[in-house]
């Protein structure tokens, strides 16, 4: 069995607002991509995410984007052997006043390196969701200074 995971959080904002906080590069750059994001997450596009606190900018392939429900992206594995599959889901909670955001990732090799990389990404997506919640609800950037 190859590594895969799903992490989630509930954000006290409607799905459309939470979706935009992920899809809009200007907003994503405020709390997640410390080096900035270039390009809106729209179906068929390739955008760029840059992290100054981790080496390098890299391309993100947008396989599908369906506002305000889901975003499906592919991004490169550290070993250069292809893309992992990442799926964001934005589900209404409490009549749509809040949103359950989940991130699922799969695609690693079933070996020690694949499992190790999956643990790192699981941690990263968990932290991204926490940073998303704090930014959207309170305007606080949790990532600033967290890794350097």
- Tally of helical segments: 3
Based on secondary structure, the structural category is alpha+beta
Strand content: 35-45%
The largest sheet has its strands arranged as 1-7-6-5-4-3-2
Element order: H for helix, E for strand? EHHEEEEEEH
Q: Kindly report the average pLDDT value.
A: 93
Quaternary form: single chain
CATH topology: Alpha-D-Glucose-1,6-Bisphosphate, Chain A, domain 4
Major β-sheet profile = 7 strands, antiparallel
Helical content (DSSP H or I, runs of 4+): 25-40%
Shape: globular
Total strand count, please?
Answer: 7
Give me the secondary-structure topology.
Layout: E1 4-11, H1 15-23, H2 25-31, E2 36-38, E3 46-50, E4 57-66, E5 70-76, E6 83-93, E7 98-106, H3 112-138
Antiparallel strand pairs: 1-7, 2-3, 3-4, 4-5, 5-6, 6-7
Q: Could you characterize the architecture of this molecule?
A:
The protein has one domain: START domain (Alpha-D-Glucose-1,6-Bisphosphate, Chain A, domain 4, 2-Layer Sandwich), CATH 3.30.530. The protein is α+β, with helices and mostly antiparallel strands and 148 residues long. It has three helices and seven strands, in the order E-H-H-E-E-E-E-E-E-H. It has a seven-stranded antiparallel β-sheet.
Question: What labels describe this entry?
Answer:
alpha+beta, 148 residues, Alpha-D-Glucose-1,6-Bisphosphate, Chain A, domain 4, 36% strand
Task: Give a concise summary.
With 148 residues, the protein is an alpha+beta fold.
């Amino acid at each position: 069995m190859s590594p895969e995971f799903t992490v989630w959080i509930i954000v006290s904002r409607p799905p459309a607002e939470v979706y935009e906080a992920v899809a809009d590069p200007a907003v994503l750059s405020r709390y997640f991509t410390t080096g900035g994001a270039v390009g809106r997450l729209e179906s068929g596009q390739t955008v760029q995410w840059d992290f100054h606190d981790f080496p390098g900018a890299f391309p993100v392939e947008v396989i599908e984007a369906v506002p305000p429900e889901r975003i499906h992206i592919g991004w490169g594995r550290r070993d250069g052997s292809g893309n992992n599959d990442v799926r964001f889901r934005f589900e209404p909670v409490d009549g749509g006043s809040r949103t359950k955001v989940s991130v699922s990732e799969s695609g690693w090799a079933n070996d020690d390196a694949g499992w190790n990389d999956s643990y790192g990404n699981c941690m990263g997506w968990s932290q991204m969701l926490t940073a998303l919640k704090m930014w959207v609800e309170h305007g606080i950037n949790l990532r600033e200074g967290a890794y350097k």
